[in-house]
Amino acid sequence: MSYPEKPIRIILPFGPPGFSSRVGFALQPFMAEYLGEEIYFEHITGGFGGSNGPTAAAAADSDGYTLFMGTIGNMALLPTILPDYAIDPLEDLTQIIKLADTPNILVAHPSLGINCLEELKAAASAKPGTLKYHGINARSIHMLEFKSLIEETGIDLIEIPPNSGSEGAIAAILSGDIDLTITTGPRLLNDVNAGNVVALAAICPSRVVVYSDVPTMMELGLKTTGSGSWMSLSAPSGVSDEIVEMVFQAAKKASEQPSVHAELAKQAMVINASASPQEARAFIEQETERLNQASTKAGLI
């Protein structure tokens, strides 16, 4: 097989410095070296929950020259809770590899004077219906995490309508317009380190190095807030098995580089690659079902 014979495009659904962008940029040179061809990125942003990116990927030719780096939201959450979502990732995309994880971090404005989840619960109990939160958008994984937290703990918070996605939430909490938000660990790291926000809990299976002093929700006894965010690499439906295997091997080799692990670890990301394309698909199937059940319980559906 002569693939690849020209540059390969990888579509990113969010602009830098998002989770998918950071992972993609770290893997790019090693994947290009393995495949012997240039790899370039195209940011196709916008659409509800970043749906323009996967829509464009699904519509591309199935020749292996368009790939897509998707996230938990546009690959597994939104397709289950929005009847009119643009695509079905399990039908319209070919899964290649699940690549990386990152924690989602619950943070508070420093003016609240709280430093942990128990103090948040106490503050909300003392002044019910006054603490304001922002969940990025109405159907984001972060909104689901807030709704699950509220449902499990009974904590009384006020939802502020989301505006401008993650950037809007971060701007709002830095200005003090809201009290709480949840977003991915890489986006919050500098502000947590600077003391601009206070990290209360991490949503992930186990602690990551740069948030080592932040307890996970599971450590705190909460079971329904999920396991954070992840990202995967896929291609349009119909790509040949030979191309899928070549791209899988390129991504797998790239993900095994010590420099990639070290660079991503500094940004609160962890390589957690699937062992095969089949395992990647099975993982996304499981996540789709898990998120459907969680969304039903939390009232997002």
Can you walk me through this structure?
The chain has 301 residues and is α/β, with parallel strands linked by helices. The chain has two domains: 8-101 and 228-298, D-Maltodextrin-Binding Protein, domain 2; 104-211, D-Maltodextrin-Binding Protein, domain 2 (3-Layer(aba) Sandwich), CATH 3.40.190. Helices cover 43% and strands 19% of the residues. It contains eleven helices and eleven strands. It has helices at residues 19-35, 52-59, 72-81, 89-92, 117-126, 141-153, 165-175, 185-194, 241-255, 258-265, 277-298; strands spanning 8-12, 39-43, 66-71, 93-102, 104-108, 132-134, 158-159, 180-184, 198-203, 229-236, 270-271. The strands form two sheets. Strands 2-1-3-10-4-11 form a six-stranded mixed beta sheet, sandwiched between helices. The chain has a five-stranded mixed beta sheet with strand order 7-6-8-5-9, sandwiched between helices. Helix 1 crosses helix 9, helix 3 (72-81) packs across helix 11 and helix 6 packs across helix 11 (277-298). It is globular, with a radius of gyration of 19 Å. The mean pLDDT is 93.
In short:
With 301 residues, this protein is of the alpha/beta class. The protein has helices at residues 19-35, 52-59, 72-81, 89-92, 117-126, 141-153, 165-175, 185-194, 241-255, 258-265, 277-298; strands at 8-12, 39-43, 66-71, 93-102, 104-108, 132-134, 158-159, 180-184, 198-203, 229-236, 270-271.
